[in-house]
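Per reviewer request, we include the raw input and output of the structure prediction for the construct analysed in the revised manuscript.
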Amino acid sequence: MISANFKQKKYGSGGLVDKKMRSQVSRFLATSTLAGLASSPALFGATVSAIEPAKMPRVGTIDERYQSFNIEMLEVTGGRFWAPYKQQAEAPAAQTDSKASTPSGMDPSLYRYRAPIDLSNPQLRKLAAGLAPSYVRVSGTWANSTYFQDSDDPAPATPPTGFGGVLTRKQWRGVVDFSHAVDAKIVTSFAVSPGVRDADGIWTPVEAKKFLKYTQQIGGDIAAAEMFNEPSFASMGGAPKGYDAAVYGKDFKVFHPFVKKAAPKMVILGPGSVGESGILMGGMPGVPMIKSEEMLTASGPGIEAFSYHFYGGVSKRCTRMAAVPQSTPEGALSAEWFSRTDRDEAYYAKLRDRFLPGGAIWLTETGETACGGNPWAADFIDSFRYLNQLGILAKRGVQVVIHNTLAASDYALVDETTLVPRPNYWSALLWRRLMGTTVLDAGASPSSDLHLYAHCLRNHPGGVALLAINADRANAQALHVPAKSERYSLTAKDLLSTEVDLNGSELRVGATGDLPQFTGKSQTAGTVTFAPASITFLAIANAGNASCR
């Protein structure tokens, strides 16, 4: 039986759930099953609205690699990344005593050392390939100060002056091999720390030149890149003291002509800022914010796709950051939480319209919350945010969404230790298999808690894929669908669990690590009901939508 229930999992303040809500859900589920729901809209006494898959108009298209993932540069090199919550208070290992890789202004106790990720791991590759084709973005805060060891010698014991980390040839070759194996084109950024600057403090291509040359030598290709990661908070990311919009403009005017000569096919993304309209709009104590508007004015033309980063809040790790929004499990299905992605996209879309009219917009980093995600970022409850974000941004014309991360910290798609897929991975896999690149208008929803998105059904001319997210924890929702379909419903007995069911059966990889072949449940034409706190894809193969032919 499907439950929208919470168990009282100890995630800290705000983690317990209203007993009245649990009681209401229990009474509801005591009288209904998934099969019963499909034929009993009277259970919740609502008028059933109809959708017309055949007539859904085309809104636009998205990149074939729309749904993608990030692997932090620090994962590739090894270093101090967000500590799992249970390890924050543990003493660091001897090799991590240096605070060189801790972003400026951040508490070193929030991080722990991790060895370089094994990108040759067959299971990790199977999971990544399941989402193909995609982009793999290898960047992040630490990439801003990473030195490229352009020889086959071992990495130096300490980074050269002006850098915070070292990337070896072997490590980068591992990234290139991984990208080929899983059909994931590389997106990255470059170092901007004091180690790459001339006597006047202006950026030079000293690192970028050898990095691009080696990539080409080993048969690699960088599809797109930002000049550097999150310049809106440059001082946190290794840029020189006093870095401002004027310096950014001077740097970009060196960067742009260099890239056009050294890697003419690489798409220049930018500026890649974060938080200006949302979680960090007032800045952080002691950390100045550089506005995208000022940077783009100073740099002049040159970006070829507008990029930004988005987090709806910060995780429990960063609760000490004053006046920065937090999140709770109780609010994880709310319209307010979902709307934050709309707010930031609208803000950056206006800047895109001003500085790159008609240009593409990419969301190159996003996740449940900044600072590594909350404990519940690994649970089914975050799949509602994740899929709603994919749905609304596709409808708004965002071309690429790169999730942070594939397999590091709490917001990862895959558990970094066991490589067991988390609920967001299964959500991503269903999206990849069903939602095509042509975006449709699903029409008005009968309820503010039922979020509807439609795309052409992948590999089925004329077919439509409907995504229905019922964010109501206590009440079912219903639609009249005038054609038969295959149904794929994601539910969990406990929203704060890493276990998720597809049509009532728990999703797992096979004994040899292979991904399952999803089988939908036949759904007759007529009233289709969606259980409380559930996510459903309907594959309507015979919709007959002209935009999908």
